[in-house]
Specification:
With 289 residues, the protein is α+β, with helices and mostly antiparallel strands. The protein folds into 2 domains: 170 residues, Molybdenum Cofactor Biosythetic Enzyme, Chain A, CATH 3.40.980.10; 86 residues, Alpha-Beta Plaits (2-Layer Sandwich), CATH 3.30.70.2860. 35% of the residues lie in helices and 25% in strands. The strands form 3 sheets. It has a 6-stranded mixed β-sheet, sandwiched between helices. A hairpin with a 2-residue loop joins strand 8 and strand 9. This is MoaB/Mog domain-containing protein.
């Protein structure tokens, strides 16, 4: 991928994602949380600047936070909130924040209720999931036993979520999104335009439309090749909308011979929708022998 960083723009909240787990480092589990969270942060106007993955080791977790804190205002941490001995995230985050852990009885009752619904007794080890940094706000997890938390420390906003993706999405919907949705002012939120092409290589495409994009320092421009497609993406500020949409018309015309989809267009779905209007369809294959 190639990018054009553009000229300085109004300050945006910068965010970073720290994923914790040996299974991520070994490749046993794909770090889908980072992609999912980043997509939603960008939709809210945040600039996601780093993804880090570290092992379930106390010093590694704290080192990960140390490396992200200088470049981001909001830190999203996932994983390591379980009830076993290798779940060390809450302890490491508390130590990084310089705060003692405090027991939260409401979190214990939350766990007891979940086990009661399953008609099972609660292992004593689950009490580990009831400790949080002293000044943290506990975030109820309707999808699992591990309540999340958010805490302010070192002039950073830290959100600590469990690892299972369905629990991340539940906590995001209930707690994170309502808090962050108005954080970045609308004038500072970049909007996205995209073109998906087929039949032309990334370098040829860039060469073809390069003159149109020359000196567009106010735009963030990126190419992404993923066979058989090459995508062009442009992000712009609302203040530049008129000139950018005018440019978009020229780009669409220039890419017309290879254009497959524009913005949120879904050609396969559109084709199915149009086909459904007919009682019968005849397919003629003039290529396959």
């Amino acid at each position: 991928m190639t990018t054009n960083p553009g000229s300085p723009v109004p300050s945006r909240n910068r965010a970073a994602v720290l994923a914790i787990g040996s299974e991520l480092l070994s490749g046993q589990t794909v770090n889908s949380n980072a992609s999912w969270i980043s997509t939603r942060l960008v939709d809210l106007g945040f600039e996601v600047v780093r993804h880090h993955v570290v092992d379930d080791i106390d010093i590694d977790i704290r080192s990960g936070l140390d490396s992200l804190a200088p470049v981001a205002d909001t830190l999203i941490v996932t994983g390591g909130l379980g009830p076993t001995s290798d779940d060390l995230t809450r302890q490491a985050v508390a130590m990084w924040c310089g705060l003692p852990l405090k027991y939260d009885d409401a979190s214990w009752q939350h766990i007891v209720e979940i086990f009661a619904r399953m008609q099972r007794s609660v292992p004593e080890t689950n009490k580990q999931q009831c400790y949080f940094p002293e000044t943290a706000r506990v975030l109820t997890n309707r999808a699992g036993t591990a309540n999340a938390f958010t805490v302010q420390a070192k002039s950073k906003e830290v959100w600590v979520l469990p690892g299972p993706p369905h629990e991340v999405s539940a906590i995001w919907e209930d707690h994170v999104h309502p808090t962050l949705r108005d954080r970045v002012p609308e004038p500072s939120r970049r909007r996205l335009l995209s073109w998906r092409t087929i039949g032309r290589g990334e370098s040829h495409l860039a060469e073809h439309i390069g003159p149109l994009l020359k000196d567009r320092k106010n735009l963030e421009i990126a190419y992404r090749a993923h066979a058989p497609f090459v995508e062009l993406k442009i992000r712009y500020l609302p203040a530049d909308q008129a000139s950018t949409l005018e440019l978009a018309e020229k780009i669409t015309a220039a890419l017309a011979p290879w254009l497959y989809e524009i913005n949120d267009q879904d050609v396969p779905s559109e084709l199915l929708e149009r086909m459904s209007r007919f009682k019968s369809i005849e397919v003629w294959d003039g290529v396959t022998q």
